[in-house]
Amino acid sequence: MNPDPPQTLAPTTTSPPPSKGLRSGSVGLLASVALGLSSVAPAYSIAVTLGFVTMAVGHLAPAALLLGFVPILLTAFAFRELNKEMPDCGTTFVWTTRAFGPSSGWLLGGWVTQFATVTAMAALSQVGAGYLLGLLGLDSLASDETAVAVTAALLIGAITVIAYRGLQLAAVVQYVLLALQLVALFGFGAAALARHGALTPSLAWFDPFGFDSFGAFAKAVLLCLYIYWGWDALLTVNEETRDSERTPGRAALISTLVLLVTYLFTAVAAISFAGTGTAGLGLGNARNAADVLSALGPPVLGTALAKGVQLAVCVSAISALLTCVVGSSRATLSMSVHGALPRAFARIHPRHRTPSFGTVFMGAAAAVLLAALTWLSPAFLGDAILSIGLLIALYYGVTGLACAWLFRGQLRRSWRDAFLKGVLPLAGGLMMLAAFVRSAVDMTDPSYGSTSLFGVGGVLLLGIGSVLLGLVVMLALRHRFRPFFRDGRTAVTRLTVTED
């Protein structure tokens, strides 16, 4: 999308990137892992996805979780290697700009990621608000769309204040919220496996060749891609991390592996206890699909302890919301510093050392989107959530390709470089883009999701429509930010990596 000639990275980096005003060295490995895990919302993600995966492939849900993890792991290698060379809080925006030019970087690395994040923030706030009202015994309000929307807006406001006041405070909050989630999930799993009558887990549940049809397999894997999404948010704080060239990459791999173990254990335990039938507590029952943990919690743990699982799902959504605000504000900071957004996004609070304007702006954007979608129809919000899958596959795929392209000059230096910088990221990128195409084809069915227009599913319109909207906005801004769109590769190179 840009006529400038491609560039390749120099073999090594010799000095850290210039500071953007953030508080460097304030985040360690543990905090990075916590932020990465929290952004995925593990309790919420497995609760609302496992049932749909089981409906698609039955007892092979663990196999789908494993296969869905493969492109995520391959993409994580791409993020790690790129972060070593260019530890910039703009992550995909910077890397895509360096690889494919400023237009691609602005649209695919900037707009797509931010639109997906703001949409996720609107959805997470709504889920957190609904659960919170239910836990407080306000069932009548929990079923009222206006009350839920108002509560969700208040949650966004509270989370924005925490993010505004500093990353150290945010990390402390995440420790508590993440610990509750993991304790609840592993406690639920252990109790389910110990219940009388629970099935003995079978290796056949992990058979990658046991799927009856490619369609069912593809649908299940695409669902699994969604539940792993979000770990890359930890890389947006790389400039505030100790040993920023290595710690974020390690945290990315650790967080994805922890997610895999957590999801597999929970899925195996749920299938062992409830089975995959379409009646009663079976995971194949459509009535249980929207929230498996709420359906299985009382019979597994009892009513009192089941409340703890519901609390875990609630705080899961809230903690992911916090990480989204932290990550998105730093991504827009980087875009502004590189001349791709107004200078206001580069403002740093003098005491808290956080992107003050960007943090408030992203919180407000999520609240406005939530209000707009709620006003139009709850169905629109549901379809907007489903459309996030398209955007995930798109920008993850482009990042994998960017890694292989940028490091192409280093691939003959060693087998390590060939695999970790070339083969694995390229494979992950192609898998992600294949998932994008497959998703787009499936979403052309008007029955996909809850809405349709002119015979086209609303999920496809929202997903592809957001990309087209970004293209229109980019074209409108090219004149205002002409230096970036003319010399973007030079700008991100100068501010993120020192050439040999």
UniProtKB/TrEMBL annotation:
Database matches in InterPro entries: AA/rel_permease1, APC_superfamily
Main location group: membrane
Membrane topology per record: Multi-pass membrane protein
Keyword Cell membrane attached: yes
UniProt-annotated stretches for the region Disordered: 1-23
Swiss-Prot/TrEMBL keywords: Cell membrane, Membrane, Transmembrane, Transmembrane helix
Biased composition (Pro residues): 1-19
Transmembrane intervals: 27-53, 59-79, 106-134, 146-164, 176-194, 214-231, 252-274, 309-333, 354-378, 384-407, 419-441, 453-477
Location relative to the cell: Cell membrane
Superkingdom of origin organism: Bacteria
Protein name: APC family permease
